[in-house]
Amino acid sequence: MNSTALQSALREWAMLIRSARFWATFAIVVAIFVAMGPSGTMEDMGLAERAAFWTLLHAAAWAVAISIITLAEIWLREHISSTLVLLTINAVLATPFVAAAVELVRWSWLSLPPTTLSYGSQFAVCLPLSILFSLLTHMTMSAKPAASTASQPTVSAAAIPQEPPPLLARLKPDIRGPILHLTVEDHYTVVTTTRGCQLVLLRFSDALRELGEIDGLQTHRSHWVAAAHVEGLAKAGGRFAVRLKSGTVVPVSRSYADSVRRRFGDIRDIGERQPLA
Questions:
Q1: Mind listing the GO molecular function terms for this protein (predicted)?
Q2: Into how many domains does the chain fold?
Q3: N or C: which end of the chain has fewer CB within 10 A?
Q4: Per-residue pLDDT tens for 91-127?
């Protein structure tokens, strides 16, 4: 496993742990199993033991499922555009591991050693549960985590277009404003507006499509800038760059240099002091 995938997975797991939707769903599912008492647990266990058993079993199953599904989501989402196909593959990949976890809990608690027949039965039961896990994980990973705005410069607010771009809907309400800059960070796109910035779990190419009619230009494979907020071109540390009115300096790669020059004009040297975004 490469460090980037692991870093992204750890970030997603942290998001899930903080998700109210996740814990609410977990509590509802466990409560249903405790109330119904399937697999003979209603007859063989009291309420407290039944609650403990199903909580432990689901905790193990959910932990295994979400770990597998999160990693699968990170690895596959760049190659699979269909959400339905992605969710199905994630669930199928997780199900054998979830069934194994359930069998181990049943063995340790009920002294029922796993057999081929019992594992096959658990596999059939765990497949729909894995689809639930896959959907819940995908929904939480698609949530819009907010980034700190403390370091963001204050800029003059511009009017939001009458038809807001779809990308704005992914931002928290207090971050929504004219979009200044997009950049890539791991598997996220960082969206910077006049009101701050936010990490969005979205491929950069998809984020560019969701800009709608905003006038702007890609300056680098990992950067896009809004034309209305460009102050001019610059050289920072010997590198060609675009300087925004906010003071942010955005790098320009060779493949985009000609189009950037045609659009934004002359270059002026701003020295070594300005860091590149």
A1: DNA binding
A2: 2
A3: N
A4: 899 999 999 999 999 999 999 899 999 999 999 988 8
